[in-house]
């Protein structure tokens, strides 16, 4: 087998080529590219800055964020209940503390899905309202 020139395929010649008209130098594809480049110049690509990256990370809601909020609300409620317990040991519960406890229960109930926890919160709120009612009956 004789090799004529590098890269030439055997049997490839002028028969496989099609002739273009003289006016169609680049064809339709080349003309479409020219029109596209004339309409919209390419904008340079910019990498996000470190500040942008941090802002994007902060914008993404963390999967544990809901748990963290629920834990903070539960801690606030437990703190008020602990203060009520101390007030009971002293002998008097301030009305403001009872109002705060009832308000926390009302707020917490709307954000809880567990029926057992809702029932417990309802009981605490009921007890706080009963104690508030006792204060209003005092002369």
Enumerate how many helices there are, as a single number: 5
Fraction of residues in helix: 55-70%
Overall geometry: rod-shaped
> Which spans have pLDDT < 50 for at least 5 consecutive residues?
none
Secondary-structure element string: HHHHH
Oligomeric composition of the shown chains: single chain
Q: Taking all residues together, what is the mean pLDDT? A: 75
| Radius of gyration over C-alpha positions, nearest whole angstrom | 39 Å
Strand content: under 5%
The assigned structural class equals mainly alpha
The number of distinct β-strands equals: 0
Largest sheet: none
Distance between the amino and carboxyl termini: 122 Å
Word description of this protein:
The model has no long low-confidence stretch (mean pLDDT 75). The chain starts with 26 loop residues before the first helix and ends with a helix. The protein is built from 5 helices and no strands. The chain is mostly helical and 139 residues long. The chain has a domain of 74 residues. Helix 3 runs antiparallel to helix 4. Helix content is 63%, strand content 0%.
Question: What does the secondary structure layout of this molecule look like, with pairings?
Answer:
Blueprint lengths: L26 H13 L10 H10 L5 H26 L4 H15 L5 H23 L2
Helix pairs in contact: 3-4, 4-5
Nutshell version of this structure?
The chain has 139 residues and is mostly helical.
Name some characteristics of this structure.
139 residues; mainly alpha
